[in-house]
Amino acid sequence: MSESAPEIYAFRVNAELLVPGQRLVLDELTLAPLASVRVEEDDLGTPALVVAELEDGESLRIAYGSAVRVAAPAPEKHASEAIRSIPSDEETYAAVLAAAEAAHPEDRAVKELVTRLARGLNVKAGSNLQDVRDLAHTLYVDLGDAENALAVCGLITGLGFDGNYGRWNWIQGALALAAQITHEAGDSDASAAFAQAVRAGDHAESDPLKAKLSAELLQRQLNEPNLYDREVQRAAESGDEHSERDWRILRLNTLLYLRAHGGSQAYTDAELQRRIRTELSAIRGLNLDL
């Protein structure tokens, strides 16, 4: 009997963050290995297109900022090491969820997320990690509940980077949020620790060429971040509050990520903090009955 093929996970990443060697998921049966990636600007000098050259000679033109799916293998060894800092006690896990729900018994989003998570936490499942991040995000951003949000973040912030960027995306989001919450609370040591953990995957590439390309892409992301200004403005001008809220949340997540990296050439830490406060106020003002 032949060995079964290794399980493949698919995760989403902005097109401009693609690097050679990754495999684009074109459909459920087709993986397209990347040979090279370059960014083209429009006539005004704004990044507009990502041109991905595939190993078979074909090329794909993808809008800058668009999300694409990339394949990654499940971890082959030592997957259990990933839970070293996670409360393995089921009672502890359940208590965190119960506290969040008890604090907001009428909130539909909290109830739905807690119900899904009550089945248990599978640290190998990106959807589980996303639910944890989303619950913490809802508690902090929509409901202003920093205490319970931080406790929920703590369910996954101890997970280490294991090479799977799909799962890491949600862990990293929880870390960036935890860094912000502890910064606001005046706990600079904890905030710095969370911020440092956010960067765990930044220099994980061992191949020198790939590492150089990854570093260049990261620096570009930090210095030329997409804050969705046009999208937010367009939604606001049209009175589409649901769309405006969605774009502002994407902007907030980018700001939190940038702040956890210590700012950039474009924005200092102080400016990022000011923008985060502004964005939180705007989103909470658009806290619609979703």
Any overview of this molecule?
The protein has 290 residues and is α+β, with helices and mostly antiparallel strands. 49% of the residues lie in helices and 15% in strands. The protein contains ten helices and six strands. Strands 1-6-2-3-4-5 form a six-stranded antiparallel sheet, covered by helices on one side. A hairpin with a 4-residue loop joins strand 4 (47-54) and strand 5 (59-63). The protein starts with 7 loop residues before the first strand and ends in a 5-residue tail after the last helix.
Brief overview:
With 290 residues, this protein is of the alpha+beta class. Helices cover 49% and strands 15% of the residues.
Question: What is the topological layout?
Answer:
Elements: E1 8-14, E2 23-27, E3 30-41, E4 47-54, E5 59-63, E6 67-73, H1 90-103, H2 108-117, H3 126-142, H4 146-153, H5 165-184, H6 188-198, H7 208-223, H8 229-238, H9 241-260, H10 269-285
Antiparallel strand pairs: 1-6, 2-3, 2-6, 3-4, 4-5
Helix pairs in contact: 1-2, 1-4, 2-3, 3-4, 3-5, 4-5, 5-6, 5-9, 8-9, 9-10
Query: What is the approximate shape?
Result: globular
Using only C-alpha atoms, the radius of gyration works out to: 20 Å
Percent range for β-strand residues: 15-25%
- Structure class: alpha+beta
Estimate the mean pLDDT confidence: 80
User: Care to count the β-strands?
Assistant: 6
Number of helices: 10
Sum up the structure in keywords.
10 helices, single chain, 6 strands, alpha+beta
